[in-house]
Amino acid sequence: MVWTSWTAILLELSFWRKASDFRRQAYGSWFLALAGVLFSLFDHLLRPAGTSEWVSLAGASALGYWMALRLWTKEGKLWVTTLAAIAASGYAMLLSWLQLPDVTVAVAWAALAVLLLEAGFRFHHEPLRTIGHFTGAMAFGRLFFTNFTNEGLTGGLSHRLITVVPVAGSFLYLYRRSREDAWPWLRMHLWLASAAIAILLRFEMGHVFTVVGWALLGTILLLLSRKYETEDWRWQSQILALMAAVRCVASNFDDPQSFAGLPGRLLTAGIVIGTLYAQEFLASREHRSRTFYSLLGSLLLASLLYREVSGSGLTVAWGLQGLLLLAAGFPARERILRLTGLVLLLSCILKLFIYDLRNLETLPRILSFMALGVILLAVSWVYTRFRERVRKLL
Amino acid sequence: MSDRILLLITMGVLALSAILVRAGKIDDKQDLESVARCCSDSIVFPY
């Protein structure tokens, strides 16, 4: 703190007397101050921080920002002011890390990121804005150290929820505020915000309902992507849909719990499948993501049927699914639904001849053949009887 | 909505978050074990 103060005095003298000697001495004592802070940091790891530490860091940080500002406004020195701002931001982050409750450190860093960005715009200092974005990314990293696994509570609300949501909101602000900069990498804020919320949902909703949270978040992101024409949100929505489907198969299908008399695996998988088909119709007609959501939903439903229906009834269950997809595909004018339905029916025929004929008992075998035969007859009848109407729908 | 109003809302929500945490039962822990638990719980599907 004293060395930093001495630096500030020398710097002011160099402005006043226009003397380069004072400037060189100022930079020297500044370097010593920085080394002193680093030494104190390592020393602190061995003993708890006291009043002297926070007073020293707060003073050094404030003086660092002030000197950076003076050097920028007086002489326009970009690199020195950038280094000074980095050091001052490091002091401020260290101060909040030492003094605040662990769970609020990320919140403080997010606030610092916003302030640095605003200062960068106010003083037309581009690197300061970059430091702000970098501080925001550090706040995201910090969430993993304490926030996601934190057990603190306030009025029934977890400290996870109370801290992660505002930090995610600050990422969206950082992105929106920087739209004039148009740096492509600033889109990282959109990904950081969504990733923070997705991971929060994992810890907030528990093992079973995480997939429901992800499916709903994916739907919200898809709607946002359509409203604001943001490709990143559409990609995120697709990634979340895939994650929800994979987690359903890998985890939820084995869930032994029941909710209101309904097996948890059916409830959660049903919601995810419903959400995937809803996303298909919410996605733009011009985009391939419709096909992705549709195929994922059909695949997940087929996997659920494979898991829930025993061997003898599986062919019939898949046949019925194919029939339903075909039936839905005509009025909805969704070619992918009709094609998926036909592929499922074809798979049923193959399964019937390759597996069922050899492995099933006589009665289930007869029933499978009859049921699939009736379904196929119904499909061919619809295609021939309503040929003209089907052509119009296509 | 103007940038200034959004800035006020963002900073206000961040400040409110810190105040709410202070008002509740704080769980003060930060360690690498917590990071490892966070990552493993996110990826592994235990049943």
Describe this structure in words.
The complex is a heterodimer of chains A (394) and B (47). Chain A starts with a helix and ends with a helix. In chain A, helix 11 packs antiparallel against helix 12. Chain A is an all-alpha fold and 394 residues long. Chain A is elongated, with a radius of gyration of 31 Å. In chain A, 81% of the residues lie in helices and 2% in strands. In chain A, a hairpin with a 2-residue loop joins strand 3 and strand 4 (262-263). In chain A, the strands form two sheets. A two-stranded antiparallel sheet of chain A has the order 1-2. A two-stranded antiparallel ribbon of chain A has the order 3-4. The relative contact order of chain A is 0.04. Chain B is mainly alpha-helical. In chain B, 70% of the residues lie in helices and 0% in strands. Chain B contains two helices and no strands. Chain B has helices spanning 3-23, 32-43. The longest helix of chain B has 21 residues, at 3-23. Chain B is elongated. The termini of chain B are far apart. The mean pLDDT of chain B is 80. The chains are: A mainly alpha (394), B mainly alpha (47). The interface between A and B is large, with 45 and 33 residues.
